[in-house]
Structure formats: C-alpha cells, structure tokens
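Quick one:
INPUT:
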C-alpha cells in the first residue's frame, strides 16, 4: 500500500503534501470544535517511522505570496492553489462533494506523511497521514460519508475501517489520521505516549534545517533498512542490507533531514546529514566546477578524485559490501597480476580535482569531457601510453588523435552509432582529458573562459546561502538542447512552458555547526 486513504480524494491531498504542493490562496482560519489549524503532524505519528514528509498545505504571509508568484510562472499564469483545488474537485465530484464546502472548513495548515515499513509490494508497506484539523466535528462528518466503512475502537478512540482494503481513518485532537489500520493504531499510540516529534534525533533533524518553509523531509536510514528486512527478504537481500548498515555505521550517518522553501524568484533546498563523518577536506570541488569552459551548460566538480575513489574502495571493503564475495582490494590485485595494470600507481595516485562538463545546445554541437587535474604531469602522460597498450586487449583499437595543440599527447577510440565522433583521450601539462563530441577536447585543454565567470553561474551560486557550487546547470541551455532532440513531441511541447520558467540551478556542500549540508537552488526569474 503506497498510501491507503479513506475517503479517496484525501489521497490526492496527502500526495500534494508529500510533493510540497500547497493549497495556496486558501488561508488558514481559527480553530473550532477542538481543532488546531497549526497542529504538529509529527506529534501524532510514531517515533519509529523511518520516513517522514511534512508540508505546509495552506501557507500564509510571505511564503504564500512566494508560492503563488513562483507557481504562476511554472503554470503559465495559472493560480497553483486553484489548480490543486480543481484537481481535488474532479475526484470529490464523484462523491457529490467539493473542496470549498467539505474540506476547506476543517483542513488545517500542515500535513505529515509517515511510512512505517517498506516492502516490495503495496500490501507490504504501512503508512499513515496526519492532517491538521481546525474543526474536528466537520472533519469527522466528512469521513462519515464513507458508507462502506465500519466503526471500530482502539484505546478509547473510534476509527473507521474498510477491512477489505486495509484502509482506516480517525479524528483525534486536532488531527485527521488516515492510513493502514496498523498505521492509524500506531498514530493513536503516539498521541497517548511517545511521538516522533518527541524523538531526540528527530528534533536534531528539525534543528539542522529550517522548518519554516514549504516542506520538510526526515529519513532514518537504519530503521528504513530494518523495515525492509522485516518483510521477509531473501538471504542474499539480508546480506546486502547488513552490508549497507555496516557502511552507514562506518560513515557515522544517523539521519538525513531536508527542507524546501520558495522565494519570489527561486526554489531552494537544504539537506543535512546528521552524524556523518566529514573528515578533512580533500581537494576543491567548487573550484573544479567553476573551472569548466564558459560554453558548458552542465558542470560538476569532484575534489581529489583519486583519493575519493581510494577512500570509497576502503569503505566498500570495510563494510562487507563486496561484489560477488570479491574484496575490492583483491580485485585490484587481480588486475595487476593479469594485465600488469597497477590502478593506484598508474592512475589514482596522480588524479587530483576533476571537472565533468557538457556543452552544446543542438545535436551537432553536443559534447562533453572529464577533465582531471594531474598531481604528476609525467605520470598522467604515461597513462596515455598505458591505455594505448591495454585497449587492444579489450578489443578496442586506439588510433592517433589529430589536431592536438603543442605539448599534448593523446589517442582516439573510433566512434560508434552512439558516439559518432569517438572518444578522445589526451594529456597536456597538468591536465588529463577524456572527451566526446566536436570542440569539447579543445575547450577542455585550452578554455577561452570559465563557466564560473558567467552571469548564469553567479546567479545560481547566489541561491546557496553561503555554499559554493560544485554542481551547475544552465537550465535554459539544457532546455534548448532537449527541444532540438524532441522536435515535434507533443509531451515536450506541453511541458515546455513550465521548463522555460526555470533559470540556472546549482548545488554545493558546506558544514554548519558540525553538520554536513548540501544546499541547492533553481532560479525562477
């Protein structure tokens, strides 16, 4: 059961909450009949929930104004709140009801969705939704419209149940609880005992990111894995789950929190990893992302790529998450014995910061490259010779690479239907490049300018609240490329007005108060 709800139209409302889509333009009102428009959904949800999503469904003040402004841009001038209400009314109409008369009078400001266990099938998953209610009597009257449900009682609380579909609902202390029977009972237990809102780890997650915006996400990875394990996984699945738990323990990751907010001209997010071991900074991924050529519409920076791979292999081996029972270090030894290839010495040791970029806004100019800064130019130049001798053993015949600038060496892997221009590999000075497409190799070896100096990059960087971008996307340029590739496609034509509303986007990492954060944002000018 992804989300079993009673009655059915509330499923759309809960899904809107999970997607942080507010019922804008429908401001909150005062409470009556014991309801609380601003009731905390997490205070009625069980503390063991591994996944929780919360949203403001009826924002007010500056947030409401920002949501409406951005929403209208994305919907080509249409009001986002009215569009959601119209979608709800399409479903409510089948029951002889409508949002304004039957839901708006009791719906509060916040909605929370908790997943209690995860399984491979819909019947293996339990979940519950808590919708804040400002009028419990009217909320109960709405639920009572469901004639196929029977009344049950649990711990002195009446609830409705459709046993055949395992769908239950109850109204309790300013909240409407909807979900599986187990989920609703767990929520009732939470209101009478410990709740998710009282969990120390959950409180830390809320403190790590802002909860004043449009949406909030909380994940407890360990409980999520345990929830999957409880669904009768096979022995191999359990082994894999144990390996993942070991990896999480090695990383120190206890929980993930994320928030999403809307400004007048942007959508921004913040994700925090609680307990994760940040360690010493390695390389400069932000500088690498900014160093891509100014023609790039996508740029990703990775700090100290060689060291990053080595550390990942060590963590992989230490976690027990080996592929087919082969330890990664043993695999590297096999490569050295069989091919004479010392991956660490011949490649990883000299690899510094790396940039991945893509350029071109039509199929004929599309290209991209991986650019690695070399800590040892002589070693990265020798890597070209190593590849030239190794590739024929894998059935790939390398050819000379024409048109290289002075001081560069390289090779060409002839193209296929997927890569008509072939793969170009070259080294010059302290730069090692693997490129595809026309122009990308030249732009990587001798860039005329950097993407970090462009207005689009600066606009995106300004959305990150102090973090420096290690990921950049010039969305308008990317849309132009997709438009050329999808010419005449009706689905793309329908989506294009929304895509055209987006400006450049960026993401980058930072550390605040000992917690690792990833900040992200996309302009909506």
């Amino acid at each position: 059961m992804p989300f079993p709800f009673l009655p059915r139209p509330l499923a759309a409302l809960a899904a809107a909450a999970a997607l942080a889509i507010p019922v804008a333009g429908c401001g909150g009102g005062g409470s009556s009949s014991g309801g609380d428009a601003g009731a905390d959904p997490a205070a009625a949800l069980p503390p063991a929930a591994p996944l929780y999503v919360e949203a403001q469904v009826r924002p007010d003040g500056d947030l409401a104004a920002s949501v409406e402004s951005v929403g209208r841009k994305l919907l080509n001038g249409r009001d986002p709140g009215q569009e959601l209400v119209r979608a709800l009314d399409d479903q409510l109409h089948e029951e002889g009801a409508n949002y304004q008369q039957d839901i708006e009078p009791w719906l509060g400001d916040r909605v929370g969705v908790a997943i209690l266990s995860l399984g491979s099938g819909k019947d293996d998953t339990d979940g519950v939704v808590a919708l804040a209610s400002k009028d419990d009597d009217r909320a109960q009257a709405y639920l009572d419209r469901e004639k196929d449900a029977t009344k049950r009682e649990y711990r002195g609380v009446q609830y409705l149940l459709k046993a055949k579909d395992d769908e239950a609902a109850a109204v309790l202390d300013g909240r409407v609880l909807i979900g599986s029977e187990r989920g609703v009972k767990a929520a009732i237990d939470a209101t009478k005992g410990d709740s998710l809102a009282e969990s120390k780890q959950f409180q830390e997650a809320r403190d790590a990111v802002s909860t004043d915006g449009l949406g909030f996400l909380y994940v407890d990875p360990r409980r999520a894995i345990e929830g999957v394990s409880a669904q009768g996984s096979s022995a191999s699945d359990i082994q894999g789950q144990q390996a993942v738990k070991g990896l999480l323990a090695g990383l120190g990751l206890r929980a993930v929190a994320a928030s999403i907010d809307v400004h007048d001209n942007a959508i921004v997010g913040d994700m925090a990893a609680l307990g994760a071991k940040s360690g010493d900074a390695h390389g400069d991924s932000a500088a690498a992302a900014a160093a891509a050529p100014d023609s790039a519409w996508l740029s990703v920076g990775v700090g100290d790529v060689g060291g990053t791979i080595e550390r990942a292999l060590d963590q992989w081996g230490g976690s027990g998450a080996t592929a087919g029972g082969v330890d990664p270090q043993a695999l590297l030894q096999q490569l050295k014995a069989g091919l004479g290839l010392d991956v660490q010495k011949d490649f990883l040791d000299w690899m510094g910061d790396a940039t991945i970029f893509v350029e071109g806004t039509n199929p004929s100019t599309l290209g991209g490259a991986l650019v690695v800064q070399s800590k040892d130019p002589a070693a990265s130049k020798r890597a070209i010779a190593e590849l030239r001798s190794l590739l024929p053993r894998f059935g790939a015949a390398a050819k000379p690479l024409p048109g290289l600038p002075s001081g560069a060496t390289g090779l060409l892997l002839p193209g296929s239907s997927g890569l008509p221009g072939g793969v170009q590999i070259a080294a010059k000075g302290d730069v090692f490049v693997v490129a595809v497409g026309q122009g990308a190799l030249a732009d990587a070896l001798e860039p005329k300018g950097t993407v970090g100096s462009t207005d689009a990059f600066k606009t995106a960087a300004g959305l990150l609240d102090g973090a420096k971008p290690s990921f950049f996307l010039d969305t308008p340029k990317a849309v132009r490329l997709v438009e050329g590739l999808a010419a005449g496609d009706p689905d793309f034509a329908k989506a294009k007005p929304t895509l055209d509303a987006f400006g450049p986007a960026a993401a980058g990492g930072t550390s605040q108060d000992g917690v690792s954060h990833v900040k992200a944002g996309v302009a909506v000018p």
